[in-house]
Amino acid sequence: MLAQIIKFMRIAVIDLGTNTFNLLLAKINPDHTFTTLYSGKLPAKIGEGGINQHLITALAMNRAINVLKNYTIIIEAEGGADRIIGIATSAVRTADNRNDFIAAIKEQTGIEVTVISGDEEAAYIFEGVKQAIDIGNETTITLDIGGGSNELIIADGQQIYWKHSFPLGIARVLDMFKPENPILPPTLEKVENYFWMQLEPFWIEAAKYSVKTLIGSSGSFDTYRSLLTQGNPGDALSFDIPLNDYFELHRRLADSTIEQRMQMKGMETMRAEMIVLASIFTNIVIQKLGIKRFIQSEYSLKEGFMKSIINHIQ
User: Fold this and answer.
1) Domain 2-116: which CATH number of 2.60.34.10, 3.40.50.300, 3.30.420.40, 2.40.37.10
2) pLDDT one-digit tens code per residue, 54-80
3) 164 has which bridge partners?
4) DSSP characters for 8-64?
5) Ranges of H-type helices in the chain
6) What three-state secondary structure class fits 97?
7) CA atoms within 13 A on the CB side of 189
8) For the chain, first and last CA: distance in Å?
9) What value does the mean pLDDT take over residues 7-14?
């Protein structure tokens, strides 16, 4: 697919995530870099009501199409794009009616959507992270927490040693456990135990490396940064999250109701429901591996996919 689109110089990439649709509109430069013209995100929640039944509901389809129509308006307002590329991830990968979903999007918006594998998703995520953070020779772990899947990548700046996409996205876990408001200790412990057991292949692989740096990409980590900076995250492409501050934030999130989280300075409305389960996942990885440095990356899947397009330009 990439070989067919490299001739276009203004590209819009839309990451059709399980919770959020993320848009990156960019101009590809002659020196094989890209200039961001617009970057934004809108809630679509295509996993709501059907993700664990392998279904995208009619309501979810309507939400998705409305978001994509909105994005086409934004793209035109920003000067247009030579090509709009939709990339779909976990919720669409596992949906029995994914072909109907993709066809409806094409018919009503004109946007062609390609479903990428979990392995491809992890690779694109890390390609994005490398543009935001100079990893160098240090072996790190990159974590992307999504609504349908969570990706874990063990890599340094030169190569990926191991990567895997786990179907442990927060929309799936929320639907499975239906936590109280606020989450009660027995439920929190059940969620922790579930993550712990499901991540067994990762624990085995991570034990082969002495990794002390965790890089978090995508929405949940953006939210941690926003909360810790009181809604003033700044423009830097990465942010070192002090571990003690994160642990305090984790406790505060776990003890809060959704109404209280909605009032927290820096909390995005669309993250308030799922951020507790995301933080439980993050905390388990940090504690189990004895992480000493925690970095948030602004770049993730859509930037990695854009870079892959550029890499195919001769």
Assistant:
1) 3.30.420.40
2) 999 999 999 999 999 999 999 999 999
3) 152
4) -SEEEEEEE-SSEEEEEEEEEPTTS-EEEEEEEEEE--TTTTTGGGT---HHHHHHH
5) 58-77, 90-93, 98-109, 118-132, 170-177, 185-198, 200-206, 219-228, 243-254, 258-262, 275-289, 301-311
6) coil
7) 3
8) 15
9) 85
Euclidean distance between CA atoms 21 and 17, whole angstroms: 5
Query: Would you tell me the crossing angle of helices 275-289 and 243-254 to the nearest 10 degrees?
Result: 140
**Could you give the CA distance from residue 79 to residue 181 in angstroms, rounded to a whole number?**
44
Q: State both tokens at 305.
A: 């996919």
Nearest to 222 by CA among 20, 8, 9, 13: 20
User: What is the residue type of 200?
Assistant: E
Contact indicator for 67, 46 with CB cutoff of 8 Å: no
User: What is the average per-residue pLDDT within 134-159?
Assistant: 97
Residue ranges, comma separated, of all CATH 3.30.420.150 domains in the chain are 119-301
Rounded to 10 deg, the angle between the 275-289 and 170-177 helix axes is 110
Instruction: Quickly name the fold that domain 119-301 has.
Output: Nucleotidyltransferase; domain 5 (3.30.420)
Which residues in 3-37 are b (16+ Cβ under 10 Å) and which e? eeebeeebbbbbbbbbbbbbbbbbebeeeeebeeb
pTM higher than 0.90, yes or no?
yes
- How are beta strands 83-88 and 10-16 bridged, if at all? parallel
> What is d(CA 308, CA 106) in angstroms, rounded to the nearest whole number?
23
Q: Which of 58, 63, 86 is nearest to 1 (CA)?
A: 86
- Closest CA relative to residue 256, chosen from 267, 240, 242: 267
C-alpha angle 279-66-118 in degrees, rounded to nearest 5? 45
